């Protein structure tokens, strides 16, 4: 057995964990979820869900991962030998494959737009090109599968190089660039005429959207954007040294996630309102509305290119975390197997994602429970898998692990540790249950 890898620095771990959290959740999903669910109310519920429910569970995953010093299945086996708890490690394994299967499809769409952005920038664009571009891209089976495969290859290549040489190195340069691009694009968006309507949409509450369904969606968004409930943070934390402050790391990741999500809103909503678009466009918001807006701006194709580079970076930082869950389980600390495992599980993810990639083309008429394969995968993870996984992680950390273990990992029995224990034992499980009930009976 080879020596277990570790992060080489605190900032490397935080950037990698934040990269896993930010991803498509902040840039693609958060804007369209906020746009279709009342804007400011959804954002407020998302922030509250992040700090009150998501952050305690994030810290719980950090605790389990570092204490277990192993992949998500082995961590549960070490901390709860002879029990059924490792089952949730395998559930996380399955959910990570489902997440990445449709993540990789969206990653393929981003690559399609990135190539076209370069072409438009250097060859000139036709203002009519964006009318049906998104529909044509997602409906072409060859392009959808090819770009999905290329995106998965990039993910596999990074993960195959390990924690230090692959994931940490990639995160250290992609995350700062992502933040810089966000600032540039947000400034440009806020200087547009009519941008104030987008600000009002984001920050002036519309209480007609305050209901159980919106709360569940916001909670699911918090879990999705923090990558909790499936084991990615358990996996990343397993590579942490014992002197790392888990509380500070958790707060850093949660705050960075919210900041990036708000920045994404400041990039998208002012521009959408300034050009008369609809914030309720749905999943196609950043692919249908924004390119048309960029095309109308001076140097618009340059800003469009920057935006899709930003999206690619964000998507990759999340996808490598999803693939690392499966790879770490597959190699069980035998690091000489990493490259082969990365390609094997990457191939499995690609194959599982084929129905999602074809959901808008040749399989567009095929529905399961009234949903396309793409929407079904998203629903399984966001509405059910992540909240349920987070529920059991909170029970495990709050009730199964002893107070001594949690205090050792969290640095004592001070106020923060006591508050975390209260939240993870009572508030987090109860909030998840109540929101599910309100949705079922609403």
From TrEMBL:
GO terms for cellular component: membrane. Pfam families: SNF. It is found in: Membrane. It is a multi-pass membrane protein. Coiled coil: none annotated. The keyword Nucleus does not apply. The chain crosses the membrane at residues 12-30, 42-64, 85-111, 144-163, 175-196, 216-239, 251-277, 297-321, 342-364, 384-401, 422-441. SUPFAM superfamilies: SNF-like. The keyword Membrane applies. It comes from the Bacteria. PROSITE patterns: NA_NEUROTRAN_SYMP_3. Keywords: Membrane, Transmembrane, Transmembrane helix, Transport. This is Na+-dependent transporters of the SNF family protein. It comes from Bhargavaea cecembensis DSE10.
């Amino acid at each position: 057995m080879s020596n277990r890898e570790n992060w080489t620095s605190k900032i490397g771990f935080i950037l990698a964990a934040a990269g896993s959290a930010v991803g498509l959740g902040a840039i693609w999903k958060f804007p369209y979820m906020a746009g279709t669910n009342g804007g400011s109310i959804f954002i407020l519920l998302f922030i509250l869900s992040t700090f009150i429910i998501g952050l305690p569970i994030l810290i719980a995953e950090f605790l389990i991962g570092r204490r277990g010093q192993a992949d998500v299945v082995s961590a549960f086996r070490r901390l709860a030998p002879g029990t059924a708890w490792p089952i949730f490690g395998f559930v996380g394994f399955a959910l990570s494959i489902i997440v990445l299967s449709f993540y990789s499809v969206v990653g393929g769409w981003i690559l399609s737009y990135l190539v076209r952005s370069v072409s438009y920038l250097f060859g000139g664009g036709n203002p009519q090109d964006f009318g049906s571009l998104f529909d044509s891209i997602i409906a072409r089976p060859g392009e959808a599968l090819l770009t999905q495969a290329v995106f998965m290859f990039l993910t596999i290549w990074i993960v195959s190089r390990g924690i230090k040489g692959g994931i940490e190195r990639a995160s250290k340069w992609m995350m700062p660039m992502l933040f810089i691009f966000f600032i540039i694009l947000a400034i440009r968006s806020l200087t547009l005429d009519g941008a104030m309507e987008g600000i009002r949409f984001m920050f002036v509450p519309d209480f007609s959207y305050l209901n159980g369904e919106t709360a569940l969606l916001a909670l699911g968004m918090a879990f999705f954007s923090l990558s909790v409930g499936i084991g990615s943070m358990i996996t990343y934390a397993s590579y942490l040294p014992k002197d790392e402050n888990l509380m500070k790391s958790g707060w850093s990741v949660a705050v960075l996630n919210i900041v990036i999500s708000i920045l994404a809103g400041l990039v998208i909503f002012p521009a959408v309102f300034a050009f008369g678009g609809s914030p309720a466009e749905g999943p196609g918001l950043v692919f249908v509305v924004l390119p048309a807006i960029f095309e109308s701006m001076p140097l618009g194709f340059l800003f469009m290119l920057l935006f899709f580079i930003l999206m690619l970076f964000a998507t990759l930082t999340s996808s490598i975390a999803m693939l690392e869950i499966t790879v770490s389980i597959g190699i069980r600390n035998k690091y000489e197997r990493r490259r082969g495992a990365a390609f094997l599980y990457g191939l499995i993810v690609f194959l599982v994602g084929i129905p999602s990639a074809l959901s808008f083309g040749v399989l567009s008429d095929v529905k399961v429970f009234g949903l396309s394969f793409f929407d079904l995968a998203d629903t399984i993870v966001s509405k059910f898998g992540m909240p349920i996984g987070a529920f059991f992680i909170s029970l495990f950390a709050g009730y199964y692990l002893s107070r001594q273990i949690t205090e050792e990992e969290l640095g004592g029995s001070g106020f923060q540790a006591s508050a975390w224990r209260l939240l993870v034992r009572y508030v987090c499980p109860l909030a998840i249950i109540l929101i599910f009930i309100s949705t079922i009976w609403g």
